[in-house]
Amino acid sequence: MNADPITELESELVDMWRRGRIQTRERARAIDPKLDPACYPLLTILARGDAVPMSELVSDLGIEKSTLTRQIDAVVRLGLVERRPDPHDARARLVALTEPGRARLTALRESTIAEWRERLSRWDPADVRQLTMLLHRLAMSVNREEPVDR
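-> structure tokens emitted (150 positions)
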């Protein structure tokens, strides 16, 4: 008897999230042994560009401002992040990676991409693209940004 596909999907996602938490912990430690794994998503968002307003980080991370402030304080103490004045709003601060922080994240990302390339080296590139598209579609449907096609 076939199991319900939604139940199978939920079970697989729970396993992926568990493994993802383990990887997040390992990657945080690779950046700095004192880095709290809860701060790793903050660093990955900052690695995408230049300085980011705190309001944008609160929204992207889905956390309270007080939690974000504590995370930023922690990564500032480690020398990975800095606060900058917002040139468009004297009351606001922007958050950015320091050069050492960016270098550590870049090295880790390059290593991670190399690992993914090795793991998926036998996959057809079209399958990787389809998986990426389906994961994006699933994420959008979970966030209710896009309906799921049936």
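Residues 146-150 have pLDDT under 50 and may be disordered.
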